[in-house]
Batch of 2 targets.
Target 1
Amino acid sequence: MAARRDGTQDKRPQRQAAPIPSAQEPPLSLERIIATAVELLDAEGIDGLKMRRLADRLGSGAMSLYWHVSNKDEVFDLALDSVLEYRGSPQLSESPDWRQAVVHMLEDWRASMLRHPWSASLLPRRALGPNILARLELLGGILSRAGVDEADLNGAIWSLWNYVMGATITRANFDLSDEDMLAGQQRLAHLSQEYPTIERARLLLDNDWDGVFRKGVDFLLDGLVPRQ
Amino acid sequence: MAARRDGTQDKRPQRQAAPIPSAQEPPLSLERIIATAVELLDAEGIDGLKMRRLADRLGSGAMSLYWHVSNKDEVFDLALDSVLEYRGSPQLSESPDWRQAVVHMLEDWRASMLRHPWSASLLPRRALGPNILARLELLGGILSRAGVDEADLNGAIWSLWNYVMGATITRANFDLSDEDMLAGQQRLAHLSQEYPTIERARLLLDNDWDGVFRKGVDFLLDGLVPRQ
DNA sequence: ACCTGAACACCGTTCAAGT
DNA sequence: ACCTGAACACCGTTCAAGT
């Protein structure tokens, strides 16, 4: 069973010195810390975020961070929420085409997480921040106006959440390790008498991720709010 | 934004000595190592698995593990796959009621992961082991016999995968931190003018996880294999 | 108010040795 | 073939101190 890099893109021992030795660094601030944390996470993955490394990028001492932030978990929480903001036009969200409004928000949500692949795996294990709560609120409002009963609203929201999260977490992780998928498929080929169906379908290789995502959302919406 | 225990149940500095000072330990073996790793993961969560701690439980020196296993990632891979075995009756899988067969496998899969809450978060980021591949093979076979086109088979499998994984990862993590959910809901209550819909629906508190899971699977299956 | 270096209590893993 | 302790190169974070 091949080890897999879980989210860490492997730049090897790329130990960089002070990032911009030229200009004077602006003073530390929560905003700079979070923005730089997102950059670092994008570049090095979830295991690449180290307090010392983050401080390096900011041109400060490692311990300076702890004045602005109480611990590393808080850096994660803030970086995560910062990436989940939704700038959707209110017109769209209130348009009579509720289905389009839902799909737009969900696809944007997924796209935001795929731009920052560490975020998807993180989201389910952290407390829900304001930006993701705003998305759920928006979703609840649209579904409610679309006719979903009060009693079914939680279930509807969570169904869609489940699908979005599963699709995005999977996609984000497979994405980072094509060579692993290839290895997996080759291992499968060796064992094609054991796994004939998925080997034939090349399950681990051929996949229209975007299309599958969209179809699944449609199926769920069909079930949650039957078309008349 | 409250920090959350991401999978680590907090037994504080509970530094235990040799586990059973009485009897002689059986010799180290890969099976014992994996079984004990699963126990440790169940008890302490994903961050609780330390090579030294695992060796403690096994009554061996920390470095002895490295003769049986090449590194910690391999322990994760093996523990993960060991938990995903499916013992489903072949009669069921080949029964004409394909829908029941699918639902049974998926519910069993989810239940297995919920019995070991660390496993769900781990599965999408590791290479796929033989037991999970066997489940996907079974799923592919059933759907194929149920009439799903060859061209749609990958999409069907991944849709269901997405839903199962999203539902289980979410459930497993929320499960571990009821107090966080309560805190979240109370924070929501404070901001109920900002999130009126989900606050009213008590999104973070009232939820029939099992029912939502089952309904979502049904909706997806309805879409993937329309009932005639 | 904001930043810092030294130090502590951990980790995973290498290595050179033991039996 | 199997196991071990010492040691290395890291981590997050505490603390006592600087400006």
Target 2
Amino acid sequence: MTLKNAAGKNTADQPPTTGGTEAADRVADVLLLFSRSGGALGVSEIARTLELSKAVVHRILQSLSSRGLLTTMDASASYVLGPAAIGMGNKAWSQLDFRTLAAPVLRRLRDDTRETTTLSVLTNHSRMYLDQFESPQEIKMVVDIGASHPLHSGASSRAIIAFLPEAYIDEAVAALRKSKPDCREEDYAALLETVRRNGYATSFNERGIGAASIAAPFFDRAGNVLGSISSCGPIFRFNAADTEGHAAKVVAAAREISDLLAR
Amino acid sequence: MTLKNAAGKNTADQPPTTGGTEAADRVADVLLLFSRSGGALGVSEIARTLELSKAVVHRILQSLSSRGLLTTMDASASYVLGPAAIGMGNKAWSQLDFRTLAAPVLRRLRDDTRETTTLSVLTNHSRMYLDQFESPQEIKMVVDIGASHPLHSGASSRAIIAFLPEAYIDEAVAALRKSKPDCREEDYAALLETVRRNGYATSFNERGIGAASIAAPFFDRAGNVLGSISSCGPIFRFNAADTEGHAAKVVAAAREISDLLAR
DNA sequence: CTGTATCATTCCGCTTAGCGGAACGGTGGG
DNA sequence: CCCACCGTTCCGCTAAGCGGAATGATACAG
């Protein structure tokens, strides 16, 4: 029975065990499940999804919430990520340096497209430019590193929000209505659907006059959006005919960053 | 040797096992260790700190980094929190609702002090107002919910940064120099030391003219700062004689929030 | 108010996952 | 060159913890 099940250990399906212990893998999987699935989760649901016994899941949840990584909503029953998870996220920001990680990719994309390339990350409920590589040309776009921008407009934002849960989108539509009361929710949803299908977002004359931008998102291994990169410049250099080819380069670069993160 | 170590399982010290399984507790502890200790960590160091065998730690690290919760810096050897930790942090923000959690405490503090109370959270490398309860008086302070503020100035910011690692403080001093080239690093360090000792921060006529604020931080169970609350209003109602009593109320409220989070 | 179907939680004996001590290769400093 | 410390790997023993089933709580339908 223990014959070859020992080291190999794949029940033939989803999560290929790697290196460590099965117990630890399970704990990680539970955490990642929370970080994937939007709302609150209960014992049975998790047990079903991960194909584990309810007893096991229950014990893991006990441990995790005893350490504050999970919390139980008001009464009791179902769990959500807890304050310690927020603390961890904050720490991760200071430990893991996106800028250095993405720099080579961004620089190469800049040299390739000869347009300014930017790096944005998702932060709480907004977006922020972390870095940029400026175009070598005299007329170019320059963004403000560090300031935060709303998630509802601009290519870099749309590339992110298209892959976030419903709640973010509702919030964005609400914010959008304040400046453009006549915008329709369906139109925005359709726009984001296009972004999801193409894998990139575009904007022309949107945030700034005469500015154009093509942006693509990158993800962590669990499939969460972490941010986006863009190639942007004066609109007269972004003609419709080239857009597709240009976008392909941006998407490829974004995927490269995702891969670096997944490594 | 294994005599009574079996079930009871407390080596008489730090982390009292609760509910779940020992294995899961260990995994959580490793994660929390990363979220506490600033830099990168190696197998031996963790094993020593947590009083675990090196083999165990090594296996846990394998599992966690196979899921992207940890990452190994460039070559190899020591680990830091990975992209999945950032994704988790982001998700935690949307699941765990600080505003509703803190609302009763903030409202009570407002009714008690008759001044506007605010809720701020740490985000990436800045701070953001999440909520406020306005003073019932005609002359009052009102802050801008949602916008982000630098970490280097204002009571609410200082209450946070005083409990962050060195790197943040250096960054703040650098930013501070841009507006006040003559500020001395030692002075700022001393200021923060005072904040740490008192448990609260004050500002008078600092961010806005005629405005005063008393702020205290709150923490997750692991001791990470998550944000701060403040009681603030027109400076003429904040006379020095009352400051200490006023601050005590703010600190008590902040501790209450920490407790709610630790529950 | 009773029946049925969820849910989370608890129990306990069996067994297998994984603990830990020790051995191994690599690296750096004295 | 050696010693100290690192991360990694091996393997036999054993107790940690898995899982099936029982229990209690809650909820909805009839």
